[in-house]
Design goal:
Layout: E1 4-6, E2 12-17, H1 23-33, H2 47-59, E3 63-69, E4 74-81, E5 88-94, H3 103-117, E6 122-128, H4 132-140, E7 144-149, E8 153-159
Parallel strand pairs: 5-6
Antiparallel strand pairs: 1-2, 2-3, 3-4, 4-5, 6-8, 7-8
């Protein structure tokens, strides 16, 4: 899987599967982007600890991660948990320097296409209840809040 796409601000990107070699960059992106989430509990892991977590995820059959990348950097990533056709998103993060360029929308549209190709009928993500930016983003793409989990996460779903 690799296709070249032009996003906002003439950003030329591709989409590909993540590898274990991408773990440190994925960890950095998630840690730097987490400041925008308004998390109830901030991350307590260090970058090396988070990198190890991502290496383990990227080696596991339980997680599948796609990346949007440009010539010199990974712009963002999306990780499925469990089977792709289940449509459960574990993580969607965009590097702050690439926010508002269409990276998140490209990741999500690619994920939806993958779920549909595998026969899935919905896609689901958990969002911090105070993360108004993400909630607005998902609602603009026709996701709906369906429940609250652990008092600090909205479960948002889109039927395909």
């Amino acid at each position: 899987m690799s296709k070249k796409i032009t996003l906002k601000h003439n950003l030329q990107v591709g989409v590909r599967w993540a590898t274990v070699d991408d773990a440190a960059t994925i960890a950095r992106i998630e840690l730097s982007s987490s400041h925008y989430e308004h998390r109830k509990e901030p991350f307590t892991l260090t970058h090396p600890q988070f990198t190890k977590l991502w290496k383990d995820r990227l080696k596991s059959d339980l997680f599948k991660t796609i990346l949007v990348y440009e010539a010199k950097a990974i712009c963002g990533f999306l990780t499925f948990k469990e089977a792709i056709e289940d449509g459960k998103i574990l993580a969607l993060y965009v590097d702050p320097i690439f926010m508002r360029h269409g990276v998140g929308k490209l990741l999500l549209s690619t994920a939806i296409e993958m779920v549909e190709l595998k026969g899935g009928r919905q896609i689901e993500v958990e969002v911090e209840v105070l993360n108004n930016g993400a909630i607005t983003f998902y609602e603009s793409l026709l996701f709906h809040k369906v429940s609250v989990k652990l008092e600090h996460l909205f479960v948002m779903k889109k039927e395909l």
